[in-house]
């Protein structure tokens, strides 16, 4: 049937009843989707008059290939579905509409439609569906095999776009395999995924935990909602069975091979992009900028809150150098946080509380050094000069490089290296002869996360710089280097900070400064450094960081806990009042190699 055959001599679009009457067919049942679309596009008024002009006709022609809406529509369907009534022909159109609601328009969708048409030639009463999945380097592949007793009547494989876990791909393979099976069929589904089987019984068979409070603990609930919607719509009778992976079952082995073939296919011919219509999955689901969250909503909210806390943490003035270089300098944050927060994992004792307080203040460079005491109580501490060398102001950086300190940082590094060597010897791990010199050279380099400091200052904080791994990927060596940094962190406190506090307490006694005087003194200014930005800019930074992390996590395969330091946010912080940082000549010229 050509599009011009739809228009009568009065330039009016014929009704569906007229068209079917002229073709000698019944008009009962639902009007096809293609005819509804043509009505919306061509009719200009209630009299069914169509828009004049060849341009519109050509546009409609181009919509349906080669100037044809459905060429020989009835003859083609009669040839493909001979002996079937009109209701079955309309079901054919209905299935395509369901597929359109479930996927984006891609080449894989055409393959799925062809698979459905081919399977329509077979009697479908009691059939078996075998599915499997494959995942490699961020690519997803699925395969399925449809069998009638011992005969294979259908099979297929697709590459699935998006971020999915293995069990989610197994569920997608089941759903896509079912989409080529006729309405009302009894299907025995064989899967090797215990997760899918357990959730099937909870959500479908027992019909439990569909309340919002409970369902939000289920990951990818949209997929289960999709399956449940299809079961109601297409009236399948489904029974699930568990099979052992690679157990020699023909259907399971074929499905496994097809899923691997899908991974190797480089063309987009078999690419499927899932994009469910909200009519299917709106209930119980969570969206971010119209993107469906595949995580369990409750777990995702926990992740989102954790990212929010980290964004607020990075927005603090004391974190300005971490914020500027959080993805530039390669830091092993997993091992670093383990060192800094180790006391939090132990019992709540006075000693552990003291250790926690020191570790946090040391990390943020807010230990009570002379410069901060001068800001806090200027009437008691009239100068921020170092009381030991009396040469320069005492900052957090200066504590560890003061020339008058009884213990030097190089002594601590050498002692920590001896301990490192002993631990590696116990593990029978041999290191290079120049390992000590290489570590010293790296520790002496300028740091990108400690202003005006070196990498040894990072180690004093408990930060493990990946350059200290010397490009050795062995886990034993990396753990030993983390222990080496932890030794520097602990010994710096024990031998350098404690000695400095002892000297400072003696100086306070000589100056007549008592604890009562310090408590009575008013807090004139915060002891934390300030850059003079306003709260609006800080909140904007937090919002932008959250949007970047969330979007990247949803669209990429990345660990949630590491996203805050792997994805750069340096460009999100904007200063309108520029602040110039003046470095100390003494600190700039200091070298542990001298």
TrEMBL record:
Pfam families: RNase_H. InterPro entries: RNaseH-like_sf, RNaseH_domain, RNaseH_sf. This is RNase H type-1 domain-containing protein. Gene3D superfamilies: Ribonuclease H-like superfamily/Ribonuclease H. One of its GO terms (molecular function) is RNA-DNA hybrid ribonuclease activity. Residues 123-264 form the RNase H type-1 domain. SUPFAM superfamilies: Ribonuclease H-like (SSF53098). Coiled coil: none annotated.
């Amino acid at each position: 049937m050509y599009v011009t055959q739809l228009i009568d001599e009065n330039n009016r679009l014929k009704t569906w009843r007229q068209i079917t009457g002229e073709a000698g067919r019944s008009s009962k049942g639902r009007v096809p989707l293609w005819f509804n679309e043509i009505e919306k596009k061509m009719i200009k008024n209630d009299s069914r008059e169509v828009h004049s002009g060849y341009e519109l006709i050509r546009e409609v022609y181009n919509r349906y290939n080669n100037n044809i809406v459905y060429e020989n529509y009835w003859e083609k369907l009669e040839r493909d579905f001979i002996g079937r009534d009109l209701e079955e022909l309309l079901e054919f159109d209905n299935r395509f509409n369901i597929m359109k609601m479930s996927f984006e328009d891609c080449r894989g969708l055409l393959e799925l439609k062809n698979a459905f048409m081919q399977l329509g030639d077979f009697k479908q009463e009691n059939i078996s569906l075998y599915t499997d999945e494959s995942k490699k380097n961020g690519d997803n592949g699925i395969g399925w095999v449809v069998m009638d007793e011992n005969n294979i009547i259908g099979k297929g494989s697709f590459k699935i776009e998006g971020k999915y876990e293995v069990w989610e791909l197994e569920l997608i393979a089941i759903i896509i395999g079912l989409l080529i099976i006729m309405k009302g069929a009894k299907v025995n589904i064989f899967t090797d995924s215990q997760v899918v089987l357990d959730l099937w019984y909870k959500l479908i068979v027992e019909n439990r935990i569909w309340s919002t409070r409970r369902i939000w603990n289920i990951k990818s609930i949209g997929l289960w909602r999709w399956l449940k919607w299809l079961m109601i719509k297409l009236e399948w009778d489904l029974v699930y069975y568990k099979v052992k992976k690679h157990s020699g079952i023909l259907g399971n082995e074929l499905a496994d091979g097809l899923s691997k073939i899908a991974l190797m296919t480089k063309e987009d011919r078999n690419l499927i992009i899932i994009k469910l219509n909200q009519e299917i999955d709106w209930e119980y689901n969570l969206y971010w900028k119209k993107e469906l969250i595949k995580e369990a909503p409750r777990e995702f909210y926990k992740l989102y809150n954790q990212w929010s806390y980290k964004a607020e943490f990075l927005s603090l003035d004391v974190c300005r150098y971490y914020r500027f270089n959080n993805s530039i300098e390669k830091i092993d944050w997993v091992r670093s946080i383990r060192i800094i927060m180790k006391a939090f994992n132990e019992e709540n004792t006075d000693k552990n509380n003291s250790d926690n307080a020191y570790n946090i203040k040391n990390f943020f460079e807010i230990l009570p050094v002379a410069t901060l005491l001068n800001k806090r109580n200027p009437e008691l501490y009239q100068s921020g000069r170092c009381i030991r060398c009396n040469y320069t102001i005492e900052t957090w950086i200066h504590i560890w490089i003061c020339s008058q300190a009884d213990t030097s940082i190089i002594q601590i590094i050498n002692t920590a290296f001896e301990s490192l060597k002993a631990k590696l010897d116990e593990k029978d791990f041999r290191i290079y002869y120049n390992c000590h010199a290489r570590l010293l050279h790296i520790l002496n380099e300028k740091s990108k996360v400690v202003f005006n400091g070196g990498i040894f200052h990072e180690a004093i904080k408990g930060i493990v710089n990946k350059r200290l791994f010397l490009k050795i990927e062995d886990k034993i060596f990396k753990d030993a280097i983390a222990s080496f940094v932890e030794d520097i962190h602990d010994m710096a406190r024990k031998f350098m900070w404690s000695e400095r506090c002892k000297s400072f307490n003696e100086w306070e006694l000589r100056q007549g400064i008592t604890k009562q005087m310090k408590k009575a003194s008013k807090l004139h200014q915060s002891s934390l450094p300030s850059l003079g930005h306003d709260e609006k800019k800080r909140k904007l930074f937090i919002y932008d960081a959250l949007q970047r992390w969330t979007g990247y996590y949803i669209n990429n395969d990345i660990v949630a806990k590491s996203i805050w330091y792997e994805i750069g946010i340096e460009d999100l912080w904007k200063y309108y009042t520029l602040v110039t940082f003046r470095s100390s000549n003494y600190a700039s010229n200091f070298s542990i190699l001298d």
